[in-house]
Amino acid sequence: MTVEASAQPQAEQTFVQNPFGTVTNKRVTYYRAKGWFSGGSREDIPLQHVTSVRLDISRSIFGGILLLLVGLGFLFSGLGILGFIGLLILALAVIFLWGSPAVVVNTAGRDLSAARGFPWQRDDANAFVDALRGQLFKS
Question: Which domain holds residue 38?
Answer without folding.
Answer: 19-58+101-139
